[in-house]
Each structure stands twice: as structure tokens, then as C-alpha cells.
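Summary: Need help interpreting a holo structure output

Steps to reproduce:
1. Submit the protein chain below together with the SMILES for adenosine-5'-triphosphate.
2. Request a joint structure prediction with the ligand placed.
3. Inspect the C-alpha cell block that comes back.

Expected: a single structure record containing both the chain and the bound molecule.
Actual: see attached output.

Input attached:
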Amino acid sequence: MVAKTYSAIPQATSSTLIEVEVNISSSEEGNIIIVGLPDTAAKEARDRVKPALYNSSLCQQKQIGLITVNLAPADIRKEGSSFDLAIAIAILGAFGQIPLSILEEYLFAGELALDGTIRPIRASLSLAFCAKNSNKKGIFLPEENAPEGALVSGIEVFPVKHLSQLVAHLQSPENSPLPTININPEELLNSKLENTSDFAEVKGQESAKRALEIAAAGGHNIILVGPPGTGKSMLAKRLPSILPPLTLTEALEVTQIHSMMGLLKPGHPLITQRPFRAPHHSASPVGLIGGGSNPVPGEITLAHHGVLFLDELPEFSRIALETMRQPLEEGWISISRASASVTFPAQFMLIAAMNPTPDGNMIHESKSSRQQIQRYLGKISGPLLDRIDLHIEVPKVSFKEMTSLKPTGESSAQIRERVILARQKQSLRFEKLGITCNARMQSREMRKFCNLNQECLTLLNMAMQDMHLSARAYDKIRKVARTIADLDNSDEIQPPHLLEACQYRNLDRQVWSYSY
Ligand SMILES: Nc1ncnc2c1ncn2[C@@H]1O[C@H](COP(=O)(O)OP(=O)(O)OP(=O)(O)O)[C@@H](O)[C@H]1O
Ligand SMILES: [Mg+2]
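--- attached output ---
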């Protein structure tokens, strides 16, 4: 007899539905063959499923015969151990132990231990979305992963501990009902912010804090340049504390990615805070961008809807930095391999930090030769710098400021309130355009929303000549000025907004001009 169950290939964004067909033919051997492009872990299901069935007293050795398992569609690679449960249930369906009609209505996902216990898997949230999109009634998931699946509304999610418990339920849902689990993601999202580091702890550096506020308000990429020990890393790590909260759609997207990579903390089925990823500069291009023979997401995808912090920017591999140019522009990365081509989301805010010279000092105080400075700065290409809207200098803090006992300025919560208001203005502005913040404006939107009056145009012309700014700085200044105007609750860009935006190009002349 042939029986069919459903499972799905765990993927970072949208999982693909898989049909698990089982045929049993009589044979002395007692063997399971799995076809349909399984990888090693999926193929080894045969060595887990057989003992799990025996040890749960669900079938006997002599019953087995020759079992053929077909994972369809056959042209997509099936990775991992999460198909075990669907295979075991389909085998029991083929034996006639479970009514076939009920198997049509659900998805099954879980790894089997040899005694029939169901072990946790990855990407349960994405699997539950697949169940919903395939119009299934619900999904059976390992107990540990079920809360994640329960974030998807409109389907039944059953946590399962042991194979025999699931079989009893499928044989007679009335007599052995498995409880479903319900979770309201909105409630989780509104729960209190975890304790994060606060901007109030940073002494001085008022202009750097202001630049970070603008970056957060408009979703702009930012680079901090300064000598060692001035608080660049300290400032960057506090950026998440002033970012606007995740929307539910964003939180679910972030959770799917982190769940796929096995990064969810136990007891926290939904990621409620924007990710902050700070890979070390020794990270490989694949680690940073994503890839591998079976492509997996890299740091830029783990930072989706959050922050990617690249400390000591010139120390990163040039290839990795250059490959980041496309995702910085587009908000996604496409990886092509012989086995598959996948696209991962990568809408992140980049914050980079670096010293201005190899010895750390500002250029006019540096002991390095001009060539050494050129070589050091040359590691960061012009096109990459072009994708960073705000460039700021983080100078040394005076001894007086460091040792002062007086309060150190605003808290993160105060700054965040202004950021949220500015983002609300942007949400209204871009409502029908599919973008979320000023940084994501393309030239069409800029023509519409970043118009400059005559006074501003004259000022900008003068500033650009004075500061020797290139044409490419022109768009950046207008974008940043738009955000400054939003923080000021002004519909029009006014001269003070524009002048402040020009300041964030100071390094064009002071530092970057040395790199060529
Ligand atoms: N403005 C500041 N306010 C309070 N503490 C500071 C400030 N600047 C530096 N510190 C102290 O100095 C330490 C080092 O700062 P941080 O690591 O942020 O410097 P950095 O600019 O990143 O240096 P490097 O270029 O060497 O990476 C911090 O952990 C903090 O204790
Ligand atoms: Mg540092």
C-alpha cells in the first residue's frame, strides 16, 4: 500500500512543501530506501526511523519488508533530519495503522531518537508558515519548537514529545487528544525591553551622539573615525537602544532567519529586539555575506532589520567588503551555486568604526608616512564609502569631561522617543511606496521629497565648493537633511538642516582625500 504525508524543507525565509510517499512491498530483508535527493542526514532517517518504530512497539521487525520512501519533488535537495517524523507516520499509514485521510491535513516535522522521542529541529516558524500557506489544518512539531510555530495564526500547532503519543492521537483524536498551543505574538512584542547599555553612560561626544540619533532616525549607514579609546565601540554598541521597535512583520522575518540558524534562545520563541551583529574582522567573506555549497545566511542576513557593526573596518577582507556593496544598495543578497540559487534578505543598518591612520592618531598628528596612510585608507573603496551616508569624527574626550561627576546628557529612552516620531513621519510619507525610511529613498523618491528651496540651493552650492565635495556627496547631503528636518518635525528642508547635513561630509576632505 502507498501512503502519503507532508513535511517541508526548512529554509530561512519560505519553506518548501515536501510530499513523503511510502510504498511497502514484501521482502525478507526488512529495509528502508530513501530517494528524492536526500543529503546524508536525511538519508540516515532510515537508521533512526526503524529503531524508533520497533522501540515504541509500533511495528515488528518481520513486518517491515522493503520500504521505499520518496521525498517529492525529487529535484530539490532535502537537507537535515526533520523529515524523520513524516517518514515514520507515512510508514504507519502504509501499514494501515493510521487513517490516510487525516494525514492529508497536516504537516509533520521532527527528528526521531532511537527510542521514539522527538528531538528539536530548526526553522519551525518557517515550517508553520508553510503549513498555513499550503492550506493545511495544522502542524505537529517537537515540544521545544512548538511555541515558535504557534506564532503563526490560523493553524493548529501540536507540541509532540514522543512518537507513540502522536500515533495514539492520529488513530483516535477523541480518546487521545493532543493539546494545541496558542501564543499571541503581539503580546510578546510589547513585553519590556531587555536591559541594554545606555547612551547616558557615554561622556562628552555630543556630536557623535547626535549623528547616531540621525542615523537611527533615517536608517542611515554611519562610520565613526577617531583615535583609540575615544568611545567608538562604546557608542556603536548603544545604537540598538535608540532604534524604533520592530513591527510584527519584521519580528517574524527576523525570527525565521535566526531560527533557521539555530540561534533562538530557549523560552524566547519570538525575537523582539532589533538584531545587533558584530562579527570579528577575521570573519570570512562567506561568514559575512553568506554562501557555502548549500548556501546559508551570513552576518548581513542575521542583521536583517537590525544593525551590522564592523569594528576596525580596514582590517576586514577587501573581498567581503566589496561583496557587501550590492546588499547595501538592494537590501538582499543572491547566492548562486551549482546545487541551488537562493536569495536572503539583508536590510541592515551598517555602523563602521576605524582609526584614521595605521598608528591610530588623526592624520595631522600621525607618525605614519603618507604612503602608509594611503595604503591603510585605500583598503576601503570609494564605492563602499558612498553607501555610508554619515561620516563622523570621534575626537579624544578631555580629562575634565571624563572625570566630571555631572550627569552625562540624555538617556537612550529620551533619544529614542524622537527617533520614533521621525520614523512615524517617514512611514506616512512612504506608505504606498514599499520603503520604510529615508535612507532607502531612490532618485525618484528624492526628487519628490528632498526638494531644496532657492536659499538652500545657494547654500549647498557654496558649501560644496568650500568643502570640495563631489557630486556623489550631493545626494547624501539631501537625504540626511531630510532626516534632520523630520527630527525637527519640519515638512520642508530648511537651511539649518542642510548645513548640519553638510558637516557629516567633513571627512571627505580631512581623511578620504588621502586615500587617492
Ligand atoms: N566618551 C566616553 N565616555 C565614557 N567612557 C569612555 C568614553 N570613551 C572611552 N571610554 C572608556 O574607554 C573604553 C574604551 O572605549 P572604546 O573601546 O569604545 O574605544 P574605541 O574608540 O573603540 O577604541 P579603539 O579605536 O581602540 O577600538 C570604554 O570601555 C570606556 O570604558
Ligand atoms: Mg573600538
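--- end attachment ---

Reviewer comment: The longest strand covers residues 16-25. The chain has two domains: 2-183, 199-432.
Status: needs-info
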